[in-house]
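During the reporting period the student researcher (J.K.) took over the structure-prediction task from the postdoctoral fellow and processed the backlog of single-chain submissions. One of the processed entries is reproduced below for the supervisory committee.
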Amino acid sequence: MKEKIEIQLSKTKILSLLTGAIAFVTFGILFILNPEEFQSPILRNPTAIRMAGIASVVFFGLCLIFIARKLFDNNIGLTIDQYGITDNSNTTSVGLIEWADITAVGTVTVASTKILIIKTNNPDKYIERAKNGISRRAMKANYKFYGSPISITSSSLKIKYNNLERLISEEVEKRK
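J.K. obtained the following structure tokens:
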């Protein structure tokens, strides 16, 4: 492969994710401040509602920070070249994933979101590259549940998932 394939980050998709995170943080704050107003026949306990609000603020607050950083990231989202796949698409991105380390490509679906799993013969190498403790824990969880620490979604890229999966699968197959 002589040419380089570059897939840009989609600011529109990232802005959409940011809006969703802001909504969840906002509702989380409302759940914390006024749990009685959110009681329903299914969830009657104000303490449980308040706890759900705290969990929402913590989780989606962290998401908000990472998404906001990605919104201002001007780097290429994903590059495929003769060296491998250079991923800059999400929080757990590790940079260059070398062709020699890739053993397979698979898909998992989590809450209706398709995620491309890049299987590797050297998972620890990539876990050690994690940018921070949160990313490292997420990569270890990915490895435990899906057999690889490396995952790529199209949710922040200017490409549809099916096209991303086909493109990467074809490139991996060429190098076997």
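The committee noted the following: The chain is about 45% helix and 20% strand.
J.K. will present the remaining backlog at the next meeting.
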